[in-house]
Design goal:
Blueprint lengths: L1 E4 L1 H17 L2 H20 L5 E3 L4 E5 L4 E8 L2 E9 L10
Parallel strand pairs: 1-5
Antiparallel strand pairs: 2-3, 3-4, 4-5
Helix pairs in contact: 1-2
């Protein structure tokens, strides 16, 4: 299974990492990156690991307590859509 990063996924990944780096610590930012890489490795082995959200038409898996990864499965690819900060208002946006 290949992983494809959307522009939004790249942007939100680095935004979250930079926020943690500047407002928390290097260790916390590094833990976020490690959790993301671990989760991506799990998704390669089991793409249906995340919970499917009918309203968003994508799968969602927790990266940390505060950040979820939204992704879709297209043929033999996992398309990363966005890294969502769970502290924001509930999603009612189209992804």
């Amino acid at each position: 299974m290949n992983i494809i990063w959307s522009a939004e996924a790249k942007y939100t990944f680095y935004s979250n990492r930079n926020y943690l780096l500047h407002n928390w610590s290097v260790v916390t930012a590094q833990k976020f990156v490690e959790n993301t890489l671990h989760t991506l490795n799990l998704l390669i082995k089991n793409p249906y690991l995340g919970k499917y959200k009918m309203d968003l038409k994508c799968h969602v898996v927790l990266i940390s307590k505060h950040i979820s990864l939204h992704y879709q499965i297209n043929n033999d690819c996992i398309v990363l859509i966005i890294f969502w900060d769970n502290r924001k208002k509930p999603q009612n946006q189209n992804l």
